[in-house]
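Q: I'm writing up a methods section and want to include an example of the input and output format. Could you take the sequence below and give the corresponding predicted structure tokens, formatted cleanly so I can copy it straight into the document?
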Amino acid sequence: MFPILSWTIRYIFIGLIYYFIYHIIRLIYLDIKHINERQNKQFDSPYLKLVNRKETLDFEIQEFYDLKDVVTLGRSKENDIQILDKFMSSSHAKITMDEDEYFLEDLESVNGTYLNSTQIEDVVKLKSGDRIGLGQVEFLFVKEVD
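A: Here is the clean output for your methods example:
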């Protein structure tokens, strides 16, 4: 009886190891797939890239957002970028382009808007590589220079 039980437990354990390895390889594949999608898609305008891991958030969010001349962010459907984060205001922030420069403005949100971990109180100019924090979400501002 003991050898049968021992063999059964051994095969179950080996099966769990293969299952774990399968999921690790799948996650690596999905990450590489997203990187390739990003490289194949050409962004002519600046964009926001999600810095958070999507799996840690309890709401749906895209990995990349193109920026237009004026982009509003918030929980409300009227925003250009709707983020259903419970820590975001309905109209949380606005990104505006003026003379080929982008500016970030907090729209009197309850929890504030952060630029590089510092809460902003006025309109601030964005530069490539800036981190924008809104609620539980953090974006990287990317403006590719020719």
